[in-house]
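Task 17 of the worksheet. Students: predict the tertiary structure of the chain below and write it out as structure tokens. Keep your answer in the requested format; marks are given for formatting as well as content.
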Amino acid sequence: MILLNLLPHREAARKKKREQFIASVVLAALVGVGISLLAFSWYQAAISNQRAINAMLDAEIHTLDRQIKDIKGLESQIEALQARQRTVEDVQADRNQSVHLLAELAQQLPPGVLLTKATQTDQLVQISGTAQSNEQVADFLRNLATGSTWFSKPELLESVASPMVLSGKDQRTFFNFSLRAVLMRAPDNASQNPPGGPNAAPGLRQAP
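Model answer:
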């Protein structure tokens, strides 16, 4: 009978398996480290890319901020220029207001009414005069309210009866009145009633 000693063979098999296991562990560790390095590199690249994007966005934001400041400066300049333009237009419009004022008063003046004084403060005009009756004063107010393109909001301040001796014993009562109205700026149909036009009526007279 032949006896075989299997111990060295088994020991060699165990050693071989152990070496294979160690090699597998080392290979797995290396693969894990490689994957970790790849993941770390990918995250680092992503972070760097995001930082570059953030830096570009910051630069664009600063550029936009400067442009916004420039636009605000331009808007302020435009508003200043518009204010100057409005001032110039108002001055040009007000230049001929006195002419239109006198012409419009003469045009809206009813018969029997004599104006003695007209003063203007800004756009408010105060008018004084004499009428033969209160009805004529009312007609004058109505003409300014509804028939005038240059006056608005006429308001009677006072109307005082004043007897006057004309000749001998002939005595008549006249009404000294005072009113005020707002003078409008350049109405659209002002060209239809030019100063001194055919519709202008005499009667405006400055008191001595």
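Marker's comment: Strands lie at 113-121, 124-131, 151-167, 170-183. The chain has two domains: 26-95, 96-185.
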